[in-house]
Amino acid sequence: MRFSSGFAGRRSGKDCRNGLSRGPAILTTIVERFRELLHDVNGARVEVVNLVPIVKKSDWRDELHLQAAGWRRCAREFQRVF
Q1: Measured between alpha carbons, how far is 4 from 32 in angstroms, rounded to an integer?
Q2: pTM of the model
């Protein structure tokens, strides 16, 4: 199994990329706990690519899509892990 952890988007009606919302904090916690759960899976080969520190706030074109520079950094991280 392969999973990518990361999040994007609009929370609480405010654009998270500009730091106006506290919503991403809970999402970061959820993503981190999910990653921990995946690392604890016994008997399965699981590769986790943590994109949270890779993707910058300025990389988001909108709440779902990265700009080209963000995609390139994600691709490099996938290559590094796999």
Answers
A1: 12
A2: 0.54
Beta strands 14-15; 10-11: pairing state: antiparallel
Q: Which residues pair with 11 in a beta bridge?
A: 14
Q: Detail the DSSP E strand segments found in 1-82.
A: 2-5, 10-11, 14-15, 47-50
Q: State both tokens at 45.
A: 């080969």
State the Cα–Cα distance between residues 45 and 8, nearest whole angstrom. 26
Most confident by average pLDDT, 4-8, 10-14, 59-63, 68-72: 68-72
Flag whether pLDDT at 11 surpasses 50. Answer: no
What type of residue sits at position 48? V
